Amino acid sequence: MAVTETRCDLTYCKMRGIVSVLTAFIKERKMGLNDFIQKLVSNPHICQHSQVDHFLKIDENQNEETGRDGGIHSPEVCLTSPRSSLCEDIQIKPCDFDYLKIIGKGSFGKVLLAKHKETEQYYAVKVLQKKIILKKKEQKHIMAERSVLLKNIKHPFLVGLHYSFQTTDKLYFVLDYVNGGELFYHLQRERIFLEPRARFYAAEIASALGYLHSLHVVYRDLKPENILLDSQGHIVLTDFGLCKEGLEANGTTTTFCGTPEYLAPEVLQKQAYDRTVDWWCLGCVLYEMLYGLPPFYSRNTAEMYNNILHKSLVLKPNVSNAGRELLEGLLQKDRTKRLGVKDDFLELKKHSFFSPINWDDLMARKITPPFIPSV
Q1: What is the percent of the chain where pLDDT is above 70?
Q2: Kindly report the CA angle at 45 between 222 and 40, in degrees rounded to 5?
Q3: Residue 274 shares a structural domain with residue 331
Q4: Per the residue annotation, which of 96, 169, 176, 221 is the catalytic one?
Q5: What is the mean pLDDT of residues 233-243?
Q6: What is the rounded average pLDDT of the residues 68-88?
Q7: What is 38-103 written as a DSSP string?
Q8: Which residues are annotated as a binding site?
Q9: Based on the domain organization, do 194 and 307 belong to the same domain?
Q10: pTM above the 0.85 mark?
Q11: What does the alpha-carbon distance between residue 281 and residue 223 come to, in Å, rounded to a whole number?
C-alpha cells in the first residue's frame, strides 16, 4: 500500500531506503564525534583552553541515578572493543555487572572483580574517578592507557580490553580477569627463579614488548608488579598508563617517568631516549628473577641512582654464560650499544639465551609453563 500525498508518492521500499540512509549517516556522525572527543582529551594543551574545558566539564547538576554498584551514574557511553563477546550494538552499563570484591586499588580508583549478569563471564573492572584524574591532570595518561588497550586485539601476553564506558563521575575499563597473581608476589615468595623459568617469562615479556614496539608504542614501566600470571601460568602485561604512543623506530622522547629501581640511565639523566628503554627494563626484571634484587638496587634512592649511572654490572656465576651475556647486552648503559637498538625484538629472539625457545609455539601458547599458580 502506497503512502500518497500531494506532489509526493513514497512507497514502503523507498521509505525503508531513506530510513536506512539516515541511520547510517547518524551512526557515522556519532563515530566522528567520539573520535573528535578522544583527540581533544588526549591533548593536554587543547584541554587547557577555556572553551574546551567547559565542553568537557563534568556537570554535577545533570540528572543522576544511583547504580547497583553504589556509584552515581548518568546516561552511559559505551565503546566496545573487538574482544567483546557481546553484540556491539548493546549498550553496556555499570548495572550489567555484579561486583563481587575489590582486587586492587590505585591512585585514581579501584579494580573490582565483576561478573556479567547475562554471560556470567568474569572480568576485572577498573573504575576511575574523573575528579581525581582532572585534579591531578592525568587525563593524558588515562587516555593513553585506553588507546593502547584498544590497539591490542590479538596478542596473547597483553591484557585485553572488552568494554570501556563512562558515567558522569567515573570511567570504566572492563578487562580480562587474570587471577594467577603478580610476578612480584611469586618472586617475593620464592626469592629467585631457576633459569629455565626465568627464560620462559622473559621470552613472553619480550614478545609483548616487541608487539607494542611494532605499534610504535613504548611501554616505559616494566616491573614485576605490572606483570601478571594467568591461571595457566602464562605472562600477562598490564597497566599501560605510562605508555608513549607514536614513537617511530628511530624516534625519541624525553618525559621523565617510570619506577626508580628500573629507570634507564638516559631517563635519569633527562636525555632523549627511545624504545630500548624497554629492553633495559627487561634486563632489570630478568636480573631480579635470577638474582633476587634489581641490578643496582639500594634502599637509598640517591645511591641507587648513582649505581645506575656509574656502577659496573655485577654478575655472579650461578647464571649461564648465555644468560650473563644477555644481561650485559640489555643493561648496557649506553643506549646506542644496547641489545635491541638495531633490530629491536629480532635481536633478542636470535640471542643464544633464548635458543631453547620455539617462538611460534610460544606465541601459540603451546609451550607448557614451568609453574601453574594456585587459583
Answers
A1: 75
A2: 85
A3: yes
A4: 221
A5: 91
A6: 45
A7: HHHHT-HHHHTSHHHHHHH---TTS--EE-TTS-EE-S-EEEE-TT-SS-TTSPP-GGGEEEEEEE
A8: 135
A9: yes
A10: no
A11: 7
Q: What percent of the chain has pLDDT over 90?
A: 58
Task: Tell me how far the alpha carbon of residue 14 is from its chain's centroid.
Answer: 47
Cβ partners under 8 Å of residue 88, min gap 6: 80
Are both 190 and 89 inside the same structural domain?
no
- The pLDDT confidence band at residue 45, using thresholds 50, 70 and 90, is low
**Per-residue cell: 194:** 631457576
Residues 312, 313, 318, 320, CA torsion sign: negative
- pLDDT per residue over 179-201, tens digit each? 999 999 999 999 999 999 999 99
**Lowest mean pLDDT segment, chosen from 18-32, 60-74, 173-187, 263-277:** 60-74
Comparing 32 with 339, which gets the higher pLDDT? 339
Clarify whether residues 197 and 341 are in a common domain.
yes
Taking phi over 0 as left and psi of -120 to 50 as alpha, with beta for the rest, 309 belongs to alpha
Is 221 among the catalytic positions?
yes
The whole-angstrom separation of Cα 323 and Cα 203 is: 13
Q: Are residues 276 and 245 in the same domain?
A: yes
Any idea what the CATH number is for the domain that residue 226 is in? 1.10.510.10
Query: How many CA atoms are closer than 13 Å to the CA of 105, on its beta-carbon side?
Result: 2
pLDDT band at 83 (very low <50, low <70, confident <90, very high): low
Binding residues for ATP are 135
Residue with cell 572527543: 37
Number of domains observed in the structure of the chain:
2
231 and 128 within one domain:
no
| Residue 53 domain flag | no
288-310 pLDDT per residue, tens: 999 999 999 999 999 999 999 99
Contact 197, 247 (CB under 8 A): no
- Nearest CA to 226 out of 335, 145, 315 is that of 145
Q: Of the candidates 277, 253, 270, which has an alpha carbon nearest to the alpha carbon of residue 336?
A: 277
List the domain range (segments joined by +) for residue 80. Answer: 65-176
